[in-house]
Give the backbone structure.
Amino acid sequence: MSKSFKPSPETPAVVTANDLRLGHCVWMTEDGWTDDPRQAALFEDEARADLALIEAEAQGHVVVGPYVAQVRLGPDGPEPTHFREEFRRRGPSNYFHGKQAGSAAANDNAAAISKAEASHV
Amino acid sequence: MFDVRPSNIDYYRHRAAQFRAQVERRLDGSLTEEEFRPLRLMNGVYLQLHAYMLRIAIPYGTISPDQMRTLALLAQKWDKGYGHFTTRQNIQFNWPRLVDIPDMLDVLADAELHAIQTSGNTIRNVTTDAFAGAAADEIADPRPYAELLRMWSTDHGEFQFLPRKFKIAISAGEKDRAVIAAHDIGLRIVRNEAGEMGFQVWIGGGLGRTPLLGKVVRDFLPEEDLLPYVEAILMTYNLAGRRDNKYKARIKITVAERGLDVMRDEIEAEFTRRRAVFKGVDQRVLADLKRRYAAPDFRDAPVGDYDAQRAANPGFRAWTDTNLSAHRVQGYASATVTLKAPGVTPGDCTDAQMRLIADLAERYGHSDIRIAHDQNIVLPHVHKSDLHALYRELLAAGLATANAGRISDIIACPGMDYCTLATARSIPIAQEIADHFRARGLEDEIGQFNIRISGCINACGHHHLGHVGILGLDRAGVENYQITLGGDGYDIPAIGERAGAGFPAEEVVPAIDRLVDAYLELRETPEERFIDAYRRLGTGPFKAALYPETAHA
């Protein structure tokens, strides 16, 4: 997705990508990447967003395909303005999979826990 | 040149090991994404909205029970318990982790399955009729030729970097069930006046943003000239196809821009040169393949209580009415297992269902399974005395939906629920339409009705070929759906015509509902299908049903 707007205080933006190893959606924070889009760093200035994107692109060993996405500021943090970003944040509509079922990291932990539990039985 | 590999498995293992090393180099930073992307695509690995996606080839839709169990294992161990069968007879897994894909490819290689050339600008999976070798109207089983083409095209050094992807389909029935006219090369097995078998060769068909039906470039190609002629087409396209513009790079544009006659002259000239290089290895391989695809030992037995069960059990009767196809051997039928049960995503199949189908194919179907391009599964050879037992087991697993060819047997691409290219969702629209007509109890009344949905202009859902096609678009940040009418992917290949302005998501079902009501009102007999009525009456009354306000204005 290419940027078709200018990040500004009225049209703020986040930087988002997919995790290289696992493939799930991630958002850039002040000091890394998060599974939770509400924790994403907000950019209200085009130059700062561009700089963040350059920084993200330099992290090709961590993420794939970073881009700048428009958001609006909701009560809990950034929220998507386009339905495509809403699906990325939530997951598919035909199964309760993806982010709506918990973060990828949480899923991995849950899997590890259930394996551990299974080995105790 | 034609290269016969001693063992497919060795080659697939080699390719899996190669990909494992590439993934390691990507993870340790030796390869950038730009360098890695073409490598992963060569192995069928895409990055979608929520995760990576692995597309595995099911060559010409033929799969053995053990291979099906391997897919079930992948679904269970590395995905979320299901796989998605596509309109190109492939399967896609929507949730693998990049770090697991080398292990998945190893397991696939052991089962002689792979993901090679399921992406990239190469010759893709060769597709054919799901009823090949079983259909009553068939001249010959097309699969030996499909396999010959697969062996020849896999890792063919000359055709790894074509201007664009390249799709070949082959069919042998009197009725074309492989949509020959919508492929880069379409091959119809025919007989000439002397009774010899050969191919009618079509080129330049394709859907996508510029839908075009192919044209016949050679009326009759002798059987033994298949590979040199196909190679000559590929070579001509490889040189003449445009590389300056991705949207004008398919052979359909090359043919449209340069003209069929120019293409034919170049192909024929190259064919003469290429034919001289083929020394008969291909024909020896073909002879082996014909033996490999010999018909199973069909049973000559009475049909048992088939008719009595049909009379006694309305559910079974309904299923046999819709989901069976005529078999060339008396006492047999081909059974379609639709992956279109209520609430199910078109083409999705769980690991348990895959294992059951593998078991049932062994028990009742001569161990033969096909993936059909309409996202269903076919057991091509079932003796009628076994049909009731098969039906009961399918029923218990939610796989006996009696809707093959009905309005709820919808073809749909994954759309924006998964795909990065999509501009809107397809799956919920398919589910809503199917639910709506089930709730109205109209499925049997409507009869054959083919709806196809794509979530973007690339047309993976083949919407242009649906009697009713639906194309999902993004209109100013809102999902919007265009409707096309009069397409046909079965009897008389036809590209549907756009009916008018698009509909917001919530207005698609009411629009299709008005269309169906108009059809039921207008048809002359219950046997006259929607597409027949459309051909008789033209677009007028159906557009009026879709856009009542415009019609009254």
Notes: The interface with chain B takes residues 18, 20-25, 60-61, 64-65, 81-84, 87-88, 91-95, 97-99 of chain A (CB under 8 Å). Residues 95-121 of chain A form one domain.
